[in-house]
Amino acid sequence: MDTLERGTLINEGKTKKIFAVEGDPAHVIVEYKNTITAFDDPSFTKEFATKAKYSNITTSRVFEMLNAKGIPTSYVRQLSDTEFLSLACTMIPLEVVVRRYAFGSYLKRRPEFAVAEGEPPHRFDPPVVEFFLKTTKGGLIDEDGTVLAEGLDPQKGEEDPFIENPREGTWRLMHSKTPGEEPAAFLNRTVDAERVLKGATINEMESAIVRTLETLEAFFEMHDFKLVDLKIEFGRTIDNRVVISDVIDNDSWRLRDQNWNDVSKQSFRDGEEMSQIEDKYARVAALMETSNI
């Protein structure tokens, strides 16, 4: 490991831990865990021995690729097999998704884009960018303790709701898997956009995620893979810059081979054996090591 001195544990999630750096409030150490999760359901959480290593390789090479393209990120450098150094960020509570193809929850909201079995999925050009409010246990509390959203029922799939109108001042929160024209789609909740964005803009985040998709898509296409969609998060640094933060790894996207076979986390959601999942994560990590950044 690097000679940086690890400080206190700042936060621990399902797949990683974040530590302070002694004497350096501008940076944090992100350490991966060997866990893989699905459906926001603890009963689906499993482990394999190389998960942290393969995820760290993937996210490090991805962020290095983005940094080389001038796309703003919080990533600094890889520290060890399972750790990397990042700028300390205050996270913006949004999940931002960019879609090249119509898959997953998008088809539940927009079933008109579904295709017949055996047909290739609908391809978007330009790609579609969507914003979801990131909630925990059905709610969102601001840094100052103000409740921005509450009462969303995880059992009904209401967490992380879709933002129907992200460029307006008041956001309408919608069920992420229900067609928008159905009465049940609107969750009877709105959020003040500026209380979430705090100076960040939808345009800058949209631009960054589209550039990210295009950068990764070009790399994967050279190796005969298809990047279907991608989910990222943004943070605000100590000097108030908005950057892509958190991680981008094989949990963050849908990645398919030329025959549309999945090689990413979707295989875990679909119930494949853990040995097969591990092989796919190893395959993607090895691919990312060829990026030569």
How would you describe this structure to a colleague?
It is a single chain. This protein is α+β, with helices and mostly antiparallel strands. It folds into two domains: 6-88 and 238-291, Phosphorylase Kinase, domain 1, CATH 3.30.200.20; 93-197, no CATH class. The chain is 23% helix and 34% strand. The chain contains six helices and 17 strands. The chain has helices at residues 51-68, 105-109, 193-197, 202-222, 266-269, 274-288, and strands at residues 6-12, 16-21, 24-32, 35-36, 46-47, 75-78, 83-87, 89-101, 123-133, 140-141, 147-149, 162-163, 170-174, 186-192, 225-237, 242-245, 253-257. The chain has a five-stranded antiparallel β-sheet with strand order 1-2-3-7-6, covered by helices on one side. Strands 8, 9, 15, 16 and 17 form a five-stranded antiparallel β-sheet that branches. Helix 1 (51-68) runs parallel beside helix 6. It is globular. The protein starts with 5 loop residues before the first strand and ends in a 5-residue tail after the last helix.
